[in-house]
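General statements about sequence and structure are easier to judge against a single worked case. When preparing material for the folding task, we compiled for one chain both its residues and its backbone structure tokens. The amino acid sequence and the backbone structure tokens for this protein are reproduced below:
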Amino acid sequence: MTESPPRAIADRIDRLARLLRARAQVSGLNPAQWAALRYLSRANRFSRTPGAVTRYLGATKGTVSQTLIALERKGLLTRQRSSRDRRSVSLALTDRGQSFIRRDPLQDVEAAAAMLGAEAVELGGKLGALLEAMAELSETVAFGSCGSCQRRDGVRCRQFRASLSEEDFDLLCVAYSPEAGS
């Protein structure tokens, strides 16, 4: 019996995830800790909060809270109270956290994808479409960058009523809303 293409895709993604998790365990971080570190390294200044991490990971507040506490204890991130709203906390990777990101096992997947050459662009697009379909099925929030967000008005974010930096255009944002037709 031949495996259906949707089943083969699901099996291969599961296998890739398992291989990646096995490589990541060597660092002493669990998969949730790696996911939080990766997110924080790619999130814009508006999106480096415990709530945004919770939404991005699709986890419970308790799980994310424990994950962030563990990362803080390991010296990989710091918390800072907002000067505008004392109830709000901003998260930042420490130098040690940045060092971990530079040794991220996910880079092995990047290297393998680079070996695909031009096919990597096509695969990236198809995986993006698959991710969007999964997000829709599971009713999760879309994350993307300011560069393709409909809440952007030139170099200003209407959601946060703030000017956007050049860096913001490529970083993940919790308030992302895809442009029509994206």
Remarks:
- Strands lie at 77-81, 89-93, 144-145, 152-153, 156-157, 162-163, 172-173.
- The longest helix spans residues 5-25.
- Residues 142-182 form one domain.
